[in-house]
Amino acid sequence: MRQSVRFAVALVLCLVLCLSGVMVGDSRTYASSVGWVERRPAGDVGRQWYALASDSTGTHLIAAAFGNYGTEGWVYTSTDGGASWAQTYPNTWSSYWMAAASDADGSNLIVCVWAGLVYTSSNGGVDWTTRYPAGETAQRWQTVASDADGSNLMAGTSTGRLWISKNGGSTWVETRPAGNVDGDWRGASSNADGSVLLVGNYNGRLYITSNGGTNWTELTPAGAADKNWQGTACDEDGSNLIVGVEGGRLYTSSNGGSSWTERRPAGDTNRNWSRFASDSDGSILLAADEARLYRSLDSGAKWTEQQPAGDKDAHWTCCSNADGSYLVVANYAGGRVYSLAVNPLARALTVAKTANGTVTLDPAGATYDDGTVVTLTATPATGYTFTGWSGDLSGTTNPARITMDGDKTVTATFTASPTYTLTPSAGTGGTITPNTLQAVLQGGSKTFTIVANAGYHVADVSVDGVSQGVVSSYTFTNVTSNHTISARFEQEMKQTIIVLQIGKSTFTVNGISETLDSPPVIKNGRTLVPIRAIIEALGGAVGWDGTARKATVALGSRSIELWIGQSTARVNSISTRIDSTNLKVVPEIINSRTMLPLRFVSENLGCLVVWADATKTITITYQP
Questions:
Q1: Which of 180, 352, 380, 511 has the highest count of CB atoms within 10 angstroms of its CB?
Q2: Residue 461's domain spans which residues?
Q3: Could you report the per-residue pLDDT of 610-624, keeping only the tens digit for each?
Q4: Are residues 486 and 519 part of one domain?
Q5: Is the full-model pTM beyond 0.70?
Q6: Is residue 576 domain-resident?
Q7: What are 295-320's pLDDT values in tens digits?
Q8: HEC profile for 6-36?
């Protein structure tokens, strides 16, 4: 449990309470008081209560009374929120108990005496130990502060002395801002770990340290120099501060004092602010002067007068538990002590919707503690679209968050979703599925599958005229407009392999045996074959002109004309030697069959020809 309570009092007393807890992004706000309960010790009337502090829960309290002019002053502790008290002053009674502070769980306490000593207790006030700095037996102590576990302490006097202890008061080191030799220190406060310390003096300056007192920085608000600083308070991490002076000035800061905003209650221009208390995150504040007690639920932006009925002008001192839900106040004009338990406000959240859809709440409920953050998630029904929030929530963010700082009404708007058309088409050689117009609701999805027929492959798929490459499926997601999708296919380009052997009338086409009219022969060092069966196996054609004794071979875009007995042919109408190194290589008629030079014809038709001498085998490969 992390918390620190700070309290400082003198003739003008300041109470500082820094309470811990887990800091959250939203501040808790509480209902108006339902009634103060008087909590002063039994039979003890007329005490001048100058010191008051609480643990983080509001269970363990310490209160100290100023006896005034020789009358007895007492120190009391309570373990039940002030319902009962034990008289537990250190060593002997004193007339001048001035300031007190408590750690987070109420076990480590510190009190000081005007013109006397400083005392600490590690067991909630049952036993006390003298803890003043060595040799300082009669300082005019008037302000003390403690961190969350009671190890880091600060104590100041009205004569300018300021001390820091990092071991619960066992030893002390004097520290003070440069140049301050007679500071009349007031309003000491600390954050949870004791690194940030805040202190003011009655001579006009306000200081802070962020390293436990090693170095100090003046934080006096602009225009407030030379004021009589009386009270300060800070939150758990030392970022949210509140300070006050005589004459009506009251300031808050949300950035550790780098900048200040004047935050006094409306119309109160001349208060002598001297006592403050804060919850753990600086959202709930108490501020008191010699006549009035105020509470703020929004870090000082607005204030409400809060003192118990009939006890105005009572010189209040005050403290709070960590979340601001339990307040304790005392006065030193009428000698009374009061407590107030306040309950979180119940805020109603009403959710409506315009059409088919649902809204879920996290956390679920119809009413919430004030300050609760609720997440709303809108889910449209099929065929509907969520279009936005209205009422106390606006925009289209989904899920959305709302802070319950009042009763809220929210409407979720759902509208019927528009329908869009997807138009598919496919070229020759394959299909697209589905292949008809598809109606899709806004925000919907649709997948199309593209399949090529045998002998074809997908060449391209385009969506709205933009190529998507070679894909086998395409999915439209979150559809918000009409679209087209088309598939284009291309025929597979097959490779043909023909194998022939000299002297054999059979040959193979892609492994399938076929028959020639006449076997291949070698003449003049070149292979001659009856070409018709080979060319037709490749998908070409062969023509014969008996008058001109001319053979015409065509395959694809190429054609060759050859004449019997001539060493020159025409390839695509261009005269070409059949074999420039051997003019004897010419087309011939052998055994009544036209025999053509195999390599010349095949290579000029775009085929690859390979000769295997060992087996007298010719392999022709054709790729269209």
A1: 380
A2: 419-491
A3: 999 999 999 999 988
A4: no
A5: no
A6: yes
A7: 887 888 888 887 776 676 677 888 88
A8: EEECCCCCEEEEECCCCCCCCCCCECCCCCC
